[in-house]
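[scheduler] slot 2 assigned
[scheduler] job type: sequence-to-structure, two independent chains
[scheduler] chain ordering preserved from manifest
[runner] begin chain α
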Amino acid sequence: MPPKKRKTAAGGGGENSDQPPKERQSKLAKEHNISAREEREIREAFALFAEPGGDDEEEGVIPTKDVRRAMVALGLPPSKPELREFLSILDPDDEGHAAFEPFLAICALKLHSTRDASSAGASSAEVDEAFRLFISGGSEGGTGGGMLTLGHLKRVAMTLKQDVDEPLLRDMILEANGGAGVGKGVSRQEFEQVMRRAGVWK
């Protein structure tokens, strides 16, 4: 019998041999809540500007003057106040260079803040779009000058083929606008607050 084919070190063989192996998160990546790919990219950006460090710095050190350039290479350009804060963390003794682990930590911080900002922007855009969907189309109750009116809610209920009693729709408006009156309608901000309370957006 011919010997069995051994799998390659990358876990090849079989049907999935053309798929790259999934990168495993290191302890460092887990600590900073970043993916293995993000850690690799940070390591590569650090290596672009690294210089030999002491015996305990196997990745070398990065001159603090190159920190901004390394972060720009990662697509994470820091603002001037951020850069000042990062350099004070990276090089508290003003020695002119920084080790890899603190550099990874500030890049992870910047990654998370960038991610949070973009997801907040996306949810804000989603709120705008949902509000426009409610108040556009149909002329029942008018546009309300950019306010969500009882007429709009009736039209949405009809479109969704939902048999919702008018008193319930009135109550929904009063709850959303804090009892300011059915005729007052619901503003975009009030609409967002209701949706967030309902768990539609975090």
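[runner] end chain α
[runner] begin chain β
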Amino acid sequence: MTEDANPVTRKIIHVDMDAFYASVEQRDDPTLRGKPLAVGGSAKRGVVAAASYEARKFGVKSAMPGVTARRRCPSLLFVKPRFEVYRAVSQELHGIFARYTDLIEPLSLDEAYLDVTDDIAGVGSATAIAQAIRHDIRTELRLTASAGVSYNKFIAKVASDQNKPDGVYVVRPGEGADFVAGLPARRFYGVGPKTAERMSALGIETGADIRDQSLMFLEQHFGKSAQYLYRASRGEDYRSVRSDRARKSIGGERTYADDLIEDGDLREALEHIIEIVWERIDRNSARGRTVTLKVKYADFQQITRARSVSPAIATRDSFERLSRDLLEALLPVAKGVRLLGLTLSSLESAKNSNDEQTSGVAEVNPVQESLAF
């Protein structure tokens, strides 16, 4: 990684909507406001897609089984997700972003990075732009958002969570290393429960503890994540905001209330998933070379089967044929199936994508000089 002779400090905002799905439901249905709410399924194998802040006080959170959420909060209200509504609101949200910058990198329907180094709206500072965006979201969408403002993506994303909900947190150039040093190691993105446990066994609890380790030590214990951890623990992240960031895959999956074991039931379930996933593929005008079938059995054993073709899959017939072939190769199943999923990957639009997102440190022009925020 080479230093640029005259590095320019980026001004990056990470905007994250507050309890997005749940907040949209409470906005659209006044009877739900102020009540513990979960978007998702309450059935035996339903999963919480989002929880309102009233529900979070009881320990309800996304990806939690619905039965567990109900146990923690007996008064919890469940509503079915309305993804078409969330997508429409997300489009409005991006319209607001576009008033302030052309450099927008979506991460999901409800969060994005914005590079506001060029103040095209003449607002005056990155902090003022973040406040203006939040004001527009509140008045036009009747929702709230939190924002992190900093000189790189890693710190901006962590900062957006500091004053949630409905808050802003700013980490200026020169403050990043100290800010990161005080973070729990689990706040580093990519550090899941197992990695955090391994770190704890090594005496690593905070960002400062990570920073104290040599790159060689981190490579020995954390492999490909070492370079990212080494840089991030020093407040460094040289990735640019990529408005053209290509998605690497498109897919979908379903968990079933009752295990599927009959061939006919599995084939029927697969057809439903094909319908869902192809709609997403078609909507994104995506073309890919690899179809992957994901199967989770009743005992939670999970397997995947994939097949790649050339040229890329361009029609629904081709996608259906490969998907069905992958399932047929597994039939009959010896035990019940609780989940099926399909993914199209090796997308043509992602051919030239590099490892920037994985390494967290790619890019040759580091950005560390100080400018007004």
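[runner] end chain β
[qc] chain β: The two ends are 26 Å apart (CA to CA).
[scheduler] slot 2 released
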